[in-house]
Design goal:
With 100 residues, the chain is mainly α. The protein is 74% helix and 0% strand. It is built from five helices and no strands. The radius of gyration is 16 Å and the shape is globular.
Length: 100
């Protein structure tokens, strides 16, 4: 069973935040959203995080990182079954969450 969004964020029921509004509209685990909608939201969140990190680290760091990651991403696309991608996403999110 999924945990509510507030388990992972500072959102509290009826705190008036945007995340609370979303929970009220789509459910505390976004259960009223489909898989494609959740993947699109995840994509948007990751893009926001990437943009913020590039702003801090600079464009040169982003270009260097892209040259490292591009062949890895191609390999993932070609050599890792799609069923493994969500688990990989979870592992990466967990690593990023605790990385300094």
């Amino acid at each position: 069973m999924s945990k509510p969004i507030g388990y992972f964020t500072n959102t509290m029921p009826n705190d008036g935040s945007y995340l609370d509004e979303l929970q009220q509209q789509y459910g505390s685990t976004f259960e009223q959203l489909g898989k494609i909608e959740k993947l699109l939201l995840l994509h948007s969140v990751v893009q926001n995080l990437l943009n913020a990190e590039v702003n801090v680290s600079g464009t040169n760091a982003a270009v260097e990182a892209l040259s490292t990651v591009s062949p890895i991403a191609q390999g993932l696309h070609k050599r890792v079954q799609i069923g493994e991608h969500l688990g990989l996403a979870e592992a990466l999110i967990n690593q990023l969450k605790y990385q300094r």
